Amino acid sequence: MGGRSDWRDTSSGSPRAAATAAEFTPKQAKFREYMDHSQGCADCDYGNRRCAVAQGIWEAWRALPQ
């Protein structure tokens, strides 16, 4: 009773699907691009230092309207 196999996600009532780029606003897509880059870049220190590519993506994100 109550073992690990009994757990289920009841947060939304429906299974989660991987989001595609078409499901994001341009601002969300640009932020995702920034996050994907910064997490895989050896020159970026998340939150503290950005490489030139990350800085360019960040500036493009900031320039987009809400």
Describe the protein.
Residues 1-22 are annotated as: Disordered. The chain is mostly helical and 66 residues long. It has a domain at 24-66. Helices cover 41% and strands 0% of the residues. The protein has helices spanning 26-40, 52-63. Helix 1 (26-40) packs antiparallel against helix 2 (52-63). It is flat.
Write the layout of secondary structure elements.
Blueprint lengths: L25 H15 L11 H12 L3
Described by the principal axes of the CA atoms, the overall outline is flat
Strand content: under 5%
Question: Quick one: how many beta strands?
Answer: 0
Topology as H/E string? Answer: HH
Q: What is the helical fraction, as a range of percent?
A: 40-55%
- What value does the Rg take, in angstroms? 17 Å
Arithmetic mean pLDDT? 78
The largest pleated sheet is described as: none
Distance between the termini: 48 Å
**Alpha plus pi helix count:** 2
- Uncertain segments are none
Structural class category: mainly alpha
Overview features:
single chain, 66 residues, mainly alpha, 41% helix, flat
Write a short abstract of this structure.
It is built from 2 helices and no strands.
